[in-house]
Give the backbone structure.
Amino acid sequence: MSTLIKGGTVIGPTGPYPADVLVDGETIAAIFAPGRAPDGPDVIDATGKYVIPGAIDAHTHMQMPFGGTEASDTFDTGTRAAAIGGTTTIIDFAIQRYGEVVQDGLAAWHAKTADQCHIDYGFHMIVGGVDDDSLKAMDQLVASEGITSFKLFMAYPGVFYSDDGQILRAMQKARDNGALIMMHAENGPAIDVLVKQALERGETDPVFHGLTRPQELEAEATSRAIWLASVAADCPLYIVHLSASKALEQVKAARDLGRNVFAETCPQYLYLTLEDQLGAPGFDGAKWVCSTPLRSKHESHRADLWQGLRTNDLSVVSTDHCPFCMKDQKEMGIGDFSKIPNGIGSVEHRVDLLYQGVVDGKLSLARWVETIATTPARMFGMYPRKGIIAPGSDADIVLYDPNGRTRISVETHHMNMDYSAWEGWEIDGKVDTVLSRGEVIASGGEYTGRAGRGKYVPRGLSDYLV
Ligand code: URP
Ligand code: ZN
Ligand code: ZN
């Protein structure tokens, strides 16, 4: 069946242009100058709307076992919320813990996602125990499983932590097989000392989560990861959830040298702060406990991150969607901030929150689309199947209404969370219609998708390397 998306403004890599987009089955068949498309197909009227590629959230943790509990969005609830918010592909993290077989971890994630996802999905692999077996498994995942990116942790000793020798070995392996190393760059052992000292002083409130993870320990780990990647013959490196100015400086310095060093940030670091959210009275700040933490509003982090997005020192905006409810989950940390499960849920709101950056004059329309769709597709080996409005690409398309308005609230969101990290936020723009592989799954506030329609996307190697 053919459908013509007519009268809209397509946002491409070079900026906006008026065009009609012909969808045939699951793919984009053609792009016509206005008025040049043949008559015949059903028409979706896109007058006054932006026509953008379905967004790709390259960092989610649906139903992730973490912090003594499990992230509250299932693949069903989380991908449905993502779809409603204009995201048509997620890349979630399958997990191997120390002592487990990598392929078993992957099989567990395939089992969790089977018949559950509303949109297409891929996996990165968390390697929580780098050893001879897991290194060999990395080759197999790249060659046969469509998994071409591996996350390592310099944080969380005793959970996912890798020491420098393990990191170097994994980077050497990635250098050989073409994969990308994704790094949680915080100095975990040093943070653990600060956490213990804070608790001994009776500093138990959520704000101390942030105060015991100073930006220096993110910058130091970022720098160390960059140097280790250099020792591993310039293994491609992608820093996840970058939150702080000093960490960004490390990435920028490496990129200025032409290195294959990339970074993402997340909406929470662009907008929220240690004082206003994490430091909220009582236990309320627990809503915003995540790692890396929110940073001080008295420093230049947020302005620097927006600037980094403009200059491509930050290439991607992901959510790091890792939701927990206050009740029974975040509450585990009453009286001890270190027991609050780490994570924020925003998978439904990333497209809108970044569009607000366009409205505020911080990002161009082209850069909005690049950071939420095109670059994630290229970075993680899904381009040009995903991430672009082009003939032959999957018809993952969002009609975005710049004259609409989005009000975010726990009362109206679709994520499985009993609060919103963005309660009361108003955005100048609105997701109007969402197509996933040619099927309209959301339109005018009505959701018509279904669990199980999303397909696993085996990914190729990154085509973003210099
Ligand atoms: O707080 C966070 N980021 N939780 C999810 C796990 C991770 O480190 O990405
Ligand atoms: Zn992380
Ligand atoms: Zn994460």
User: Anything to note?
Assistant: The CA atoms of residues 185 and 222 lie 5 Å apart. Residues 184, 240-241 surround zinc ion (ligand 2) (CB under 6 Å).
